[in-house]
Amino acid sequence: IGKLYIVPTPIGNLADISHRALAILAEVDLIAAEDTRHSLKLLQHYDIQTRLISLHDHNEAQRALELINKIQQGLNVALISDAGTPLISDPGYGLVNQCRAANITVIPLPGPCAATTALCAAGLPTDRFRFEGFLPVKMQAKHQALATLLLESATSVFYESPRRIAQTVADIVEVLGAEREIVLAKELTKTFETFYSGTAADCHTWLEADPNHQRGEFVLMISGVKVNQSEVSSEAMALLTLLMKELP
Ligand code: SAM
């Protein structure tokens, strides 16, 4: 019986791949990738010839069964995504869950992940953090999701698309208040890597100041509320009460 390896790949800088990741990708019988054409470029760059097979949100259920079959026949499989760590706002959960249910050994490799890369340089507390992936796109659902942070004391970490980043920061101003501290981490590991931190209002102004500020890939971090500042809590509480009235 074979094994399933979970292999993180770079989030922008091609050099951010471990020796072990390259060795595993070269040794396994099959690499399951979100977008095979995209991943082919990475493999070609490292002269890895392993066969690729697609596994994305739309075929995961069917593909998982096929891959489990192959692993049970003795093949070793690596799972990669377009960038960063598979399963972190990326496909793979169904496959891993079913592999474990079928007693297949799943071996995770550590490696690049935009959330932790952003967090460790943001200057926000890291002792407790809440990873939320992408916010809902629809406004009401997004506001509801943001409202759950009114009393959150841990740092929250989100992924956001460049098309929505300015609107999302405007939504933060509306739901969590103009003074909530946030950090934007943009284009991590790439040439134009930028961290911008300030109040939600400052960040919104910065994003709107230049269309280039909105381009690229973003991790958005929202600071927690300081629990012992009763001032903040009562303001947040008042807002929460207001918002709750609006919810269905
Ligand atoms: N699995 C990936 C990981 O481990 O980080 C995340 C995949 S998710 C589909 C893609 C999102 O991650 C992007 O929309 C962006 O929010 C964030 N992201 C990925 N690469 C990034 C980078 N170089 N800089 C900032 N954010 C990045």
TrEMBL record:
Top-tier EC class: transferase
Annotated catalysed reactions: cytidine(1402) in 16S rRNA + S-adenosyl-L-methionine = 2'-O-methylcytidine(1402) in 16S rRNA + S-adenosyl-L-homocysteine + H(+)
Domain Tetrapyrrole methylase: residue ranges: 3-202
Location(s), subcellular: Cytoplasm
Documented EC number(s): 2.1.1.198
GO CC list: cytoplasm
Gene3D superfamilies in the record: Cobalt-precorrin-4 Transmethylase, Domain 1, Methyltransferase, Cobalt-precorrin-4 Transmethylase, Domain 2
PROSITE patterns: RSMI
Pfam families reported in the protein's UniProt record: RsmI_C, TP_methylase
Coiled coil stretches, renumbered: none
Protein keywords: Cytoplasm, Methyltransferase, rRNA processing, S-adenosyl-L-methionine, Transferase
GO molecular function: rRNA (cytosine-2'-O-)-methyltransferase activity
Role according to the record: Catalyzes the 2'-O-methylation of the ribose of cytidine 1402 (C1402) in 16S rRNA.
Similarity-based family: Belongs to the methyltransferase superfamily. RsmI family.
HAMAP family assigned: 16SrRNA_methyltr_I (MF_01877)
Protein name: Ribosomal RNA small subunit methyltransferase I
Lineage of the organism: Bacteria, Pseudomonadati, Pseudomonadota, Gammaproteobacteria, Alteromonadales
